[in-house]
Fold these 2 entries.
Entry 1:
Amino acid sequence: MAGRVDLDGNQIKPITICMIGAGGFIGSHLCEKLMSETPHKVLAVDVYNDKIKHLLEPATLAWADRIQFHRINIKNDSRLEGLIKMADLTINLAAICTPADYNTRPLDTIYSNFIDALPVVKYCSENGKRLIHFSTCEVYGKTIGAFLPKDSPLRQDPAYYVLKEDESPCIFGPIEKQRWSYACAKQLIERLIYAEGAENGLEFTIVRPFNWIGPRMDFIPGIDGPSEGVPRVLACFSNNLLRREPLKLVDGGESQRTFIYIKDAIEAILLMIENPARANGHTFNVGNPNNEVNVRQLAEMMTQVYSKVSGESSIETPTLDVSSKEFYGEGYDDSDKRIPDMTIINKQLGWNPKTALWDLLESTLTYQHRTYAEAIKQAMSKTTAN
Ligand SMILES: NC(=O)c1ccc[n+]([C@@H]2O[C@H](COP(=O)([O-])OP(=O)(O)OC[C@H]3O[C@@H](n4cnc5c(N)ncnc54)[C@H](O)[C@@H]3O)[C@@H](O)[C@H]2O)c1
Ligand SMILES: O=c1ccn([C@@H]2O[C@H](COP(=O)(O)OP(=O)(O)O[C@H]3OC[C@](O)(CO)[C@H]3O)[C@@H](O)[C@H]2O)c(=O)[nH]1
């Protein structure tokens, strides 16, 4: 760790980071990276710590004096401002960010993604502290291309669907499509942060993740999360594969996504943390434009990869079509296609993603199989016995 330098050749000084939402999927990987590869300290704030337990215990771990867990709900805890004041940088990851919640719990979604983030922005601005805020690729909503006639040759032109931080519009559906409650709340907090930068000099960076996936993402229903819960697609499909049931394709599985391996994405965040002069004032897409599939192709690939890592053959009918109303309920809508433009992050931080989709699915599904296969077998045999 000695002699680490930033992208401009300057010595990197150890800093203290207040990481809100540190106990979640991204937070757990970021904490791991900061502990194992940097000298920085982390004040880890969350309501849960299961995903970072391995970093907190035992006290003999090499980084034991560099990470502290604070069980705090940022909705209503006066300790938050003190922690932000103690830190050089605040990273805010806290959010409700599973699509199944956006149309069924729209108020919680809006409060979580806008109202609860307000004090964080305010404390950073008032105390002259730097902020890295996690937004989402969903702020782009639908592509311009989605509104072109199905047979239009313009649909082949990247200008109509590649998503650019400083050019693309944010296109959401009507208000009764409550799916967009999340994207709209994220967009407004981005605008507020930008305005704090413009009017009050807040030093900020906004991150727009494009479907980061990997180990520890969400939960497996009935094992380490509620039986009726609906996580994001990686965990939904992992759950189906582990239980040997068909993978459910919402509205034909036609929506397209680009998936990036969490470990590649975390490299980008570390560059932002350690290169403030290059990252401040910017909004960055963080994704892998080379890993595009539609959801049906994702299901097929996951089925093949899971067979390989588990040694089990796939079931006779591997997928099942379901309507979005049946799966998510009233008010669901979808982003059609999400390809990140990489110009800004490339220019500012020289960062590029590395891992191909097949490879990231192989390491992720190996983890899912090792972590959950036995627990699922036991849970399923109990259900059969009852
Ligand atoms: N994973 C992705 O691909 C992705 C994509 C787009 C945007 N994002 C954004 O990145 C951030 C992190 O996402 P994630 O995938 O790690 O989600 P996650 O749900 O795993 O992590 C969020 C964490 O925030 C915590 N949290 C929520 N409300 C809180 C509160 N009031 N007080 C304290 N802690 C609270 C949760 O307990 C959880 O541990 C979110 O802001 C999300 O919108 C993620
Ligand atoms: O069993 C399932 C689950 C989902 N789908 C479809 O897969 C697409 C992707 O779904 P998911 O990963 O759950 O979420 P989104 O990509 O739509 O949204 C996320 O993007 C970033 C973030 O902001 C945070 O992670 C979040 O909002 C989608 O088309 C589902 O309908 C399926 O077919 N079967």
Entry 2:
Amino acid sequence: MTKVHTLKEQQELRLEISFEETVKVQLMTGTAEVFGCELLERKEYTFTGCKVPIFTWHGCTITITGECTNYIGEGVEMFKYLNTHTALENIRKKARENTNLNGPRVLITGPPSCGKNSLSRILLNYAIRMGNSPLFVDLDPNQNEIGVPGTINVMPMNKPIYPNEGYSLASPLSYFFGSINCSDNLDYYKILCQKLAQSIDERVELDEAARTSGIVVNTIGCIEKSGLDLLKFIIKTFGIEYVIVIGDERLSNMLSNLTLEPKKIKKEEEIKNEKEEENEIKTEKEEEKEGEKEKETKEIIEPKKVQIIQLKKSGGVVVIDEKERKTIRRILYKRYFYGITQNLKPSSMSTSWDGLGLFKIKYLEQAPEGALPFGKRSKLDPINVKRISPSSKLDFHIGAISFAKSTKKEDLLTTNIAGFIRITKVDEKRRRITYISPSSRTLPSQIIIFGQLTWYSD
Ligand SMILES: Nc1ncnc2c1ncn2[C@@H]1O[C@H](COP(=O)(O)OP(=O)(O)OP(=O)(O)O)[C@@H](O)[C@H]1O
């Protein structure tokens, strides 16, 4: 059954489509966008198992074919989201004009299901529409938008995130945490965040588009106690200058006094040399310029206050319960192995396990602080990995193919990942492993790391 919906300016048609239904959407007249990505007129978009807001700035007519819950709401928050984008765009403009300045480093936080991921998409899409190539950092191992669950990732974004396709899995830089909960090993999670942040700093140094476009960081929804400490750690590690807090004034307050240590400090010697070079008699204009330069250097050296931007949750955001999250994670694995539109067939391969290096990350139970004498930390190493022998216990496990150059613990745990396989069968008698992989080529590395991730059904 096809239904026509007419939207007035700044209204939003909100669709809630179950995993069993498929719904087709067509923009017939006017303009409309989904999470900031414009819909093309008359193009048919197919959605299944998701919540989709179709927003219009100036009014439109849309047809919906298929069964779903839907209603029209006022997209009042979109105006504030657009204002936020405009402010970020101004910072990018300044970065393009002045190589001493960088594009904005933005982090989005708030309680679970408040619209963090949706706002990340909106800000990324608006930035891309203006010709920027921001880096998108997804630090949520529970429901990672870029990679599979259990990973944290960064990806340069230079084409829109299409409404029914999500993020292309083209070239993310992935680190394998191996669990969907950061709290399973906070120390290890933090080390991976540091590695990711370091890679971003290196990229920003070399890539002009990344330098001026900045980064957008999506975080986990845990904001109490250790979650709050983790959030502060992430803000410092990634040098976040702008924190967008959705729908939680208390959190805004808790983050309000954060400062960043200066990253770029000009060495005294450098400054002295620059001054010596310019020891000629100066005109008034030159002196003025010099004053500005000194001010700039000073600004770089002084700790910078993190700015908090408080935004309201959109009226359309839907709370996702644990059962639905589980289904979404299964879909994310399926998307990895079967392609975004799930029309690819992964290769089923078999290999001898001789020559393979199989490792498992250990998630040690850490002694609660209260159980230790005051001021003492547990002596157990919280970050560990051990070599394992293949056994049928590995069936259905997700294995990360590591780029590690050695089997030293540090290399295994902190090297980025080439991709993933899912073990389908371990034949202990014949010493062979059967697995599926999105690529039919031989494994790019013999080192495979397992965590706690399994995927049972296709
Ligand atoms: N305006 C809207 N209308 C309808 N659905 C929406 C709207 N905004 C967001 N949603 C849906 O609400 C759900 C929750 O939003 P989102 O995933 O952005 O929240 P989140 O804070 O990132 O969640 P979490 O961090 O807990 O995983 C998603 O399914 C999203 O598609």
